[in-house]
Amino acid sequence: MNLRDKLRGLLVRLYARRVEGHLDHAQVPKHIGVIMDGNRRWAKAAGSTAAQGHRAGAHKIEEFLGWCAETDVEVVTLWLLSTDNFDRPAEELVPLLGIIEDVVRSLAADGRWRVHHVGARDLLPEPMQTALKEAEESTAHVDGIVVNVAIGYGGRQEIADAVRSMLLEARDKGVSMEDLAESVDIDMIGKHLYTSAQPDPDLVIRTSGEQRLSGFMLWQTAHSEYYFCEVFWPAFRKVDFLRALRDYAARHRRYGG
After folding, report:
1. Domain map (residue ranges) of the chain
2. Strand arrangement of the beta sheet that strand 203-206 belongs to
3. Catalytic residue at 85?
4. In the chain, N or C: fewer CB atoms in 10 Å?
5. What is the active site of this protein (predicted)?
């Protein structure tokens, strides 16, 4: 590392401390959703493979959760694999699934997070399903940040699954379709979502410069704030995270005034 890079790194750290020092913890979002985009483009720019990019992105997760723990965040939803990702070539999808399985096991072994899967589990390979079940069971007692791992997740799929679950529950209780139609409301559907009993995301962060949700938590993000960051996920820094929180707090205060 040359002198210029050292100086730049020092300035970034000093700036991050300054932003953190002015952060109002009363305005910190309780639930943050993250669309971790840009692993492949980061890898391409670095002359690396897609798998190396995904591994770099996986390593960033632990660091990110540490920042969240420092700022009183209670729930984090990480979008690790969408239902659309199953259309990727096998030579990319298979290593990616292995990397994600390693992430799940690492999160569970950490001891600080309560892991919860959101997504269509039946679409996932058996080893992944086993890893998710074991992670949820082994961390159920943890009194820390709830980490939703969105794997095999699609917003439309979630809503379809919620409606299906609601219909099956009504059938099992002997409720007629007419009575169900009369009683359906927003709260009833919400109880059948993957994130049932959790607060909706206050803030959604998407990296890589893309400015769209791509189907992420379509129901839950109706009133969320969005923060689009230009950097690729593996290069996401604490100062970028703090800027997102500062931006959220400013908007939150304005809308509440």
Report:
1. 26-155+201-256
2. 113-118, 145-153, 75-82, 31-35, 203-206, 225-228
3. yes
4. C
5. 37, 85 (proton acceptor)
Residue of 37, 200, 202, 240 with catalytic role: 37
DSSP 138: H
Rg (CA), the chain: 20
Say whether 54 counts as a known binding-site residue: yes
Nearest to 64 by CA among 240, 249, 255: 240
pLDDT, greater one: 221 or 26: 221
Q: Give per-residue pLDDT as tens, 169-216.
A: 999 999 999 999 999 999 999 999 999 999 999 999 999 999 999 999
Quick check: 45 pLDDT over 50?
Answer: yes
CATH entry 3.30.70.2860 includes domain 26-155+201-256: no
11-18 average pLDDT score: 56
User: What pLDDT does residue 81 have?
Assistant: 97
Bridge partners, residue 227, by sequence: 205
Residue 171 marked ligand-binding: no
Q: Give the pair of three-digit tokens for residue 206.
A: 């998407």
